[in-house]
User: What shape does this take?
Amino acid sequence: MWKKIRIIILLLILATVIQQTLQEDADLDWNKNFYVAVYPINADNSAVVSTYINTLTPQDFEPVAEYFAEEAQRYQLGLRRPFEIRLGDKINQIPPAPPVESGVLKVVLWSLQFRYFAWKNSPSMSVKPDIRLYLLYHDPLTSPRLTHSTALNKGRIGRVNLFADAAYAKKNLVILAHELLHTVKATDKYDLANGLPSFPDGYAEPDKQPRLPQDYAELMGGRVPLTESTAEVPKSLRLTLIGRKTAREIGWVR
Assistant: This one.
């Protein structure tokens, strides 16, 4: 009896995943824009971070929507604003962290845990979001180095580590935009061993002569290549571009 129940549950889960996958693929036809909910979280449980979060307004995230609108126009997408960013309520729970050790089973388990977290922690908004990003804010004085952010295409959710300081506001938006594109199937384009952008796909202008230094970072490459062995984090979205391979991955180029 219990064996039959387990099989039924697994079949229901599989059917749900297949249905969601088909819907997500259809969404990438870009017939409509995506509504993105960003939920602030006080990751340090500190007064400093709490004060910063209380200062956030919807306008603080508008540059991300404007950036993608400009990039979409460059690729002649035909959709004026691919993303609409909405500031949601503060979340008091912290989403599960991705596993430290690699392994398919651990990653799958974490993915399910994260999706369950998102299901339980999605305060209602005037428009139901297509994408949910959980912004984990840290005090740069007590947490000077951010751990790696991550986002999932399945479920379209992201766990984004940011600094709770106005001085980092523009860099925060670069990280947010990078993770947002992961939710629509963009892949990283840098060497995991050293963080350097991979040539040619991780370069904003791979045909530039001379090739180095580059003037911009490819958004999914993460950094502006300066020499063969050095690259710097872009100070703002204005110093990034979406490369052709990334555009193809997210369906902006066929």
Summary: The longest strand covers residues 34-42.
